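Holo model, PMT. Inputs:
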Amino acid sequence: FEAKRLAGRKVVLTAGPTFEAIDPVRGITNSSSGKMGYALARACAHAGAEVVLVSGPVALPVPYGVTRVSVQSALAMREAVAAAIDDADVFIGVAAVADYRPATPAEHKIKKSGEAMSIALTPNPDILAEVAARPNPPFCVGFAAESRDLDTYAEGKRRNKRLPMVVGNLVQDGLGQDDNQVVIYDEAGRHPVPRAAKDNLARSIVKHLADLLAAR
Ligand code: PMT
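Output:
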C-alpha cells in the first residue's frame, strides 16, 4: 500500500464519542461509532506509521499494529493525547468530542423526584485546537461533522484552528455507517472524495496527508 508512505512517522489519532458523566450511571454522549477513526488508524499503520489511537467508548476491536488508549471523557482524552503527542509527526482528530460536560457530576445516583430538573454544563477544552496551538505542532488534520453548509463550516474550522488539512463530512452521509463521503480542504482548495467504504476512504485521506507531509 503506497510504499509505506508514513514509515518512520508517529501518528496520534482520536476516535469515537466521549462520555460525560452526569452521575455514576448516566451521561451525555453522541452517536459516533468510531468506524471512521479506526479505519484511519488502520490505514496509517498499514502505511508504516507508529500509531496511537486515543479512543472513546466504542464496540470495535483494536486494529492490527495500533496501540489503543481507551478513555471516557473529553478531559481524559485530552490527557491521553498530551501524554502521546510530544514526539508525534501527525495528529488526526476524528473523535466527536462532547463540546460540554456536566459542571459537577453527582457522586451518587440522582433520584427521581417528579420535579423538572436541569443540568448545568461547562465547555470542554478543544483538544485539536490545543494540539495545533503547541509551539512545534505536529501536522494536524481536523474533521468537521456538519448537517449543512459543509464547505463554509469545514473551511471555516480549518482557518480558525490554523490547520493544514480538514476532512469534512455531512453527519447524514456517514455517522455510524460503514461508508461515507468526504471533502478534503487544504491550502489548495477542496478535494471531494466520492462515497466509499470507510477503509477505502481512509486510504485516500492518508495518501492526501502523506503528499502534504512530504511537500513540507
Ligand atoms: O465514528 P463514525 O460513526 O464512523 O462517524 C465518523 C464521524 C462523523 C464522527 C467523523 O467522520 C467526524 O466527522 N468526526 C469529527 C466529529 C466532530 O465532532 O466534529 P466537530 O466539527 O465538532 O469538531 C471539529 C474537530 O475538532 C474534530 O477534528 C474534533 O475531533 C475536534 N474537537 C472538537 C471538539 C473538542 N472539544 N475537541 C476536539 O478535538
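The chain is about 30% helix and 30% strand. The chain has a mean pLDDT of 96.
Archived with the compound record.
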